[in-house]
Amino acid sequence: MKTSKFIISTLRDAPNDAVISSHKLMMRSGMLRKLGNGLYAYMPIGYKSFQKVQKIIREELDKAGLMEMKPTVIQPGELWKESGRWDKMGDEMLKAQNRQGQHMVVSPTAEEAFTALVRDGLSSYKQLPFTLYQINTKYRDEIRPRYGVMRGREFTMMDAYSFDKDQADLDESYENVAKAYRRIFKRMGLKTISVKADTGAMGGSGSEEFMVESEVGDDTLLLCPNCSYAANVEKASCQKEIPLNNEGKAQVKTDLPVEEVATPNVFSIEDMEKFFNAKPTTFLKALIYKVYNCAVDLSKNDFYKKAETVTEGGQTYIPETFFCVLIRGDLDVNEAKLASVLKASGAELASDEDVLKYSGAPHGFVGPIGLKIPVLMDDSTIDMHDCIAGAGKEGFHIKHVEPGRDFAAFMTADVRTCKEGDKCPDCGGTFYMKKGNELGHIFKLGQKYTKSMNVTYLDVSGKPVTPVMGCYGIGVDRTLASIVEGNNDENGIIWPMTVAPFQVVLVPVKYDGQMKEVADKLYEELQNAGVEVLLDDRNERPGVKFKDFDLIGIPVRVVIGEKNLPNVEVKLRKESESKLIAADEAASEIAAIVKAEIDALNA
Q: Is the whole-model pTM more than 0.70?
């Protein structure tokens, strides 16, 4: 390709809304143009790299035995009602009605579509197991799209779905895809960290994210230096400590009755520490949470046993509930864990009005005694004794609270937010923290969708059996942006050879005379050698050309200048020094450089 037939539209400055390196560089290099908030178009230079990311994904998935197909982007809403996610998916899902009044969905994910398509053709155990995948457009109506294509509203995603006879087959399919993921990211020059993760709205049991370390990452990772434990903070567990009293000893039961204490202007844990001259490990912190679409059985709780329920996709839930969550005073509640434990689509702190309505006291004075709504105790509170808590009355707290004696919990669970410095649950090592961006996510869905959508096959004895599923995703745009985010310097992008828009750029100082002849000859030789080469035949100053291609990040730059002929100057984008090579030998040497770098990434 010659630049006279190609769009080169670099920018001196990035748009004002671009704050991270990848967004700035993808805009300045002309890879992207913004069409609307959270909506970005790939221009030719960017689309070439975008296609290369897809090509690597396809090659590795095909090699692993997955089969590609293409469902529609627009899906019937009835499928989402079957699965029970019509309401649970929330406002991120863009819904519409066609002219017949049928509810339609712009696909945010494709579990329902794949399950429905497989249901129509699955009949026998002999057809299983298999894994299908697509690389297709998705749309999620993000509240705050940001960072360019790192978190846009419309995006391209590879999503795959395995259909298996049983858990053993699912485990094998899961590991097969995980192995392919590691190959995919290695070929792109990305070093990934595999972490345990929350399943979120996708549901299921086992879940693993493939993350890249990033200073601007959306995710917080907790890692153990002594073993392989790694988890997203939304999922991370840690060793449970013995709660200590003010003397630093294990708390012991008390026979003293609950005592009410007037505590005017004491609202926060810090206020309580000063007022009671006590450690926060002796405080029972009570928080009222609003929970959406809770599928936990609440029939044994008097307040909710007659609540109106909704049944979708074989799952029954209460659209809106309130819980009092108890946690040790020095800890925080993890809302993702809380929603997962309650089989809910989401959980958030209740409004001031709802806190007062359901607890009888404003925030800061909420207590566990006498509540009608269910009480959920975090595991950190199980061994707490002789505690201090809110009295359930404004301006008062209570002392000598004994869990079990003074109130009963509806359930106990791990809902704490683990943090740096906590202890690893596997080996006791001390967690350290990193920021990361998620590139891929894999789930063991089990029968969540096949059961709710009535998918069966006949086993060897002729009996109908429900298959199990796995779900596997890679964000194509996010992966491309992460490559840029991790490979750049003050001059621009530094592409790995496998995903660069072009592998080599030829830059004649002036596209005329002998310099033109050498450039044209080298251009033809490199093309014949299978090298992706761009020839800059623009009538521009050399400095402009150099700046453009440093910004765009093409891995190999070859300068053809009159003063160096019959040699040409070869410089790798990732290196500071250049070298002179005889023009007659340049094509073979450059092709060897390209091949060596590709081979190293593909090894």
A: yes
